[in-house]
Amino acid sequence: MATRYGGGRQPGMSSSALGCISAPAPHLLMPPLNLDMSVYSRHFTDQSPVMGCGDLIQSVLAPPPSQQITAGAEHHDASPYMGSAMAPVPEQDRQQVLDLAATAADTLARMCRAGEPLWVRRRGASSEVMVPDEHARMFSWPVDGGKQGGGSTPAAARTEGSRDSAVVIMNSITLVDAFLDANKWMELFPSIVSKARTIQVINHGAASGHLGSGSLVLMQAEVQFPSPLVPAREVMFFRYCVHNAEEGTWSVVDFPAEGFQLEALQTSSVVKCRRRPSGCIIQDMPNGYSSVVWVEHMEMVGEEKPLHQVFKDYVASGTAFGATRWISLLQRQCERLASELARNIADPRVIHTPEARTNMMKLSQRMITTFCANISASGSQSWTALSESTEDTIRVTTRKNTDPGQPSGVILTAVSTSWLPFSHQQVFELLADEQQRCQLEILSNEGSLHEVAHIANGSHPRNCISLLRINAASNSSQNVELLLQESSTHPNGGSLVVFGTVDVYAIQVTMSGGDPSYIPLLPLGFAIFPAANPSPAATSESSGNGESSPGNPDVPATGCLLTVGMQVLASAVPSAKLNLSSVTAINSHVCNAIHQITTALKGAGASRAEPASVGGSN
Fold this sequence. Notes:
Layout: H1 50-60, H2 94-113, E1 119-121, E2 128-130, H3 132-138, E3 159-168, H4 172-180, H5 182-188, E4 193-203, E5 215-223, E6 233-244, E7 249-256, E8 271-275, E9 278-284, E10 290-300, H6 309-316, H7 323-339, H8 354-374, E11 384-385, E12 395-401, E13 409-420, H9 424-432, H10 434-437, E14 448-456, E15 464-471, E16 481-490, E17 494-502, H11 504-511, E18 524-530, E19 560-571, H12 580-603
Parallel strand pairs: 6-8
Antiparallel strand pairs: 1-2, 2-3, 3-10, 4-5, 5-6, 6-7, 7-9, 8-10, 9-10, 11-12, 12-13, 13-19, 14-15, 15-16, 16-17, 17-18, 18-19
Helix pairs in contact: 4-5
GO molecular function: DNA binding; lipid binding
Keywords: DNA-binding, Homeobox, Nucleus, Transcription, Transcription regulation
Organism: Panicum virgatum
């Protein structure tokens, strides 16, 4: 890909696109890594004890020792306002915030218990949607907007409210600890929380003898959706954690933090949101599991920018940042962490020790985090459309990178989102299966992929990390290329397939217990989310597979939003200027990839309808 786009590439790093495409790696003496074409089990069966999950998150999600914080402890000192007279919340206002926290916790509890008319389950949706008028009738916030410095809330302000629930394989104490630590929180939600920090600790908490109960912190975060067409959102909020001894539950509730001299901390490049009382109630279950009820309630602040048609309904309905997306990711990540404790490794010749398994999972987690951040509309990235067509969804951006962990030089990224008239599971199965993916001409380079190592990440067979050998005519025993791939899926929360080429020797060092953080990654992949057709008329003639029928708008269409993200190292020189031919080539490649994916799905008999958008023209 890099050579095709006229750019250089970092030695030992292939900047290939979409799976099988790969430029030759430099010749290496083959390290003692077993690259047989073996097939490994895609399931883990060992159930870890409850204390194992807790120990695991402390090690896997832990930041460096200097940044570690635990619920109610003094490790929050990384905050720039700790002990400062310029703290956003001065001591005289501390009791007011504690009172607001108690009110927010009560509001969350009532919202979790309530049924209709506050909550309505839409046909075909997994979560419940909040009725704003009913919420306004049932709840009031004790501090009005004027006193908090923002004036009264405009009557036309758009709100998003949703609720969902799930059982996760993690105990409540471990979950609460992760929610109170900004770094662990980001690790727990890598595709949603792009930035997070603790600004100030209001109360350390140790109520009712429970470490962390009563903890109250002021936090700032940026949340993202994996597409540049959906603006990232900045939220400033208080987070309060409290244990209810009578019910045996923990409440983690966020509530708005306006009015405390926070303007200087906010940026102007992302959408501002007011986080109304939101969060989750966690109850321990046997065997280390927890039952979690999740409520999301956001209010848009100021005027919103117009959204592309492909995402307009999806975002307006609250689905893009709704409860289902949060809790499904929590469920997947908890399974991922628990799977690290499994000891039924299929072949000890490949993954020798638990430390090697942990290192591979850390490397793959960084790949996921990097991919989602690089294809999203973060405030630090500027995206450009390649045409003036309103139907064009392709956006490109460039960045000059000198930081470790990614190739050094000029990186070109292209992303496109299309609505496809196929279920998100159908699309996921096509793209997650490396053999099916390589049948697509644009996603292969006359080569194939064979799995040489595997780590199961959950109960679904496709929730896994795979180390794949690229079999191409140019490869030999002295010239081997590997592909690291992670795929994850949830029936309601969407799917990810992310992959990138990795240096053989670097993988060998990683499996031998070495530090994987230095390995440069330039991941590519797909994000797939179930969604109704953004333009219902487009499916009026479609048939089969449950799509909507003409004149019946109440029946949601079966389809998905597919985001294709591609990155290439355009030049290994950070100061180099981008060649226009590189942009043209990557644009053409993205368009052709979407076309071939759609054609392959049609060929499988899934649907005869055309996708709503496939980006720009070739």
